[in-house]
Amino acid sequence: MEKLSEGTLAAIGRMTVAAVELEHVLAWIGADQAGGDVEAVFGRAGEPLRAARGSVLFAAADRREEYVRLVEAAAAQLAISQGALRAMWRGGRADAEQFDEIAAMLLRCGNELESMVTADLGARR
User: Fold this and answer.
1) From CA 32, how far away is CA 125, in angstroms rounded?
2) Angstrom distance (rounded) from CA 43 to CA 39
3) Mapping DSSP to helix (H, G, I), strand (E, B) and coil, where does residue 92 land?
4) What DSSP string runs through 67-80?
5) pLDDT digit string (tens) for 59-95?
């Protein structure tokens, strides 16, 4: 792997933070699988996505398909971010623009999921 510029390193950092933020939203969604303990779900590698996938199966029938679609989109974006880092190690593309584009998609997925959950929680009050 070649030496990375400060800009690329910063973009990788932004992407990494965006991925962790998305995993935290997934942990929040999947927390009912762990007795409501978001941190228990968040603290185990891979668990936020697994738990969220399980939880959305119990979403209201009229919202379930949208939840499943968004959780699977989040899974795809997380895989893309991990793939970009692995590819970089094998001599693939390593520029800030790529990592910032991925970070933007990760943030968009997290924001959509969080908005949907927040709207549904507000509707139940």
Assistant:
1) 18
2) 6
3) coil
4) HHHHHHHHHHHHHH
5) 899 999 999 999 999 999 999 999 999 998 888 888 8
The number of CA neighbours under 13 Å toward the Cβ of 96 is: 10
* DSSP letter, residue 90: T
For 28, phi and psi rounded to 5 degrees? -60, -45
Q: How far apart are CA 108 and CA 102, in angstroms?
A: 10
46: left (phi over 0), alpha (psi -120 to 50) or beta: left
Burial of 116 (0-12, 13-18, 19+ CB in 10 A): middle
* Strand ranges for 19-79 from DSSP E: none
Q: How many CA atoms lie within 13 A of 27 on its CB side?
A: 17
Which pLDDT score, from 0 to 100, does residue 43 have? 93
**CA–CA dist 84, 81 (Å, integer):** 5
User: Do 85 and 43 contact (CB within 8 A), yes or no?
Assistant: no
C-beta separation of 29 from 56 below 8 A:
yes
